[in-house]
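Worked example 2:
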Amino acid sequence: MPRRLVLLGSDEIALAAFAAVCALPDVEVVAVYSQPDRPAGRGQAVQPNPVAAWARAQGLPLLQPERLESAHAEELRLLCADLGVVMAYGQLLKEDFLAAPRLGFVNFHGSLLPLLRGATPVEGALAMGLSETGISLQQVVRKLDAGPIHASISLAILAGEGRVALRSRLGVLAGDLAVRALPAILGGTSVPIPQDETKVTYARRLVRADAPLDFRQSARQLEGRVLALEGWPGSTFEHAGTIIKVGAAVVDGGVEGSPVGQVISADRQGVRIACGSGSLVMKAMQRPGGKMLPAGEFLAGHPLIVGEVIASAEMPAFVSDRPFPRVIKA
């Protein structure tokens, strides 16, 4: 008799893992839980998220509650699920929901736990300048990403790799891990290993206020920040009353005697800015309403003058060795 599984996810990173689950022998996906369709894009047309669109295309039963309530736990019990599989769903699961499947829930997480628990493990790894990250498959418990680990796979972070490319590769890796590890979980032979609580770090959700750059930090930190915040909220600085977005930046050597934030050079090779340690060469920039342009093209329409100083802004950390305060939504 096929094992009955439910999938919970909303983000594109989960698609490879979910496709791998569907392809497992003797498995039937009896429901997919995903976030409701929401307005998106410039036109703000209501659209499904990638997992919801995939579930519909596969003809899988799709459930999209705004918030999981006790009625949904009862609904799940009636599905007689053996296991729930979660990746990037976007809601915390309460005790009654967690208890509904026979084997509980497992979660694919985009880091090598206990490092980078929380909402932004991929971005956290890039911001910290880690040389490797990976995917962990953990048993879900009520405490955030704290469940014991069934299996994990590591992945080297490539030089200059940004958030989009790294998330794509981690998604594929989650699919590989699903094939390797889920059969043993379904068969009851996997023995999860508790996490080392002395090595825990946390990565909070990103907010728009994370975008401004602080040139008082090292150029290496700023390079990691630009890679981590690729897309949204992006990395920005203010110049002549305009918020400029930085699309690509690399570390250069130190600059003797230059004040932090000073423009050292500005040409087709990039805009070189003195930092707290080293210098940062911004290779691509964008004005509000414009396109992301190579440095030379950008400077033709918005000059930055050698010798002027770009103001720094506070740059809130989004990785910590302690839990971040919970943000209460209005």
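Residues 163-186 form the longest helix (24 residues). The chain has a mean pLDDT of 96.
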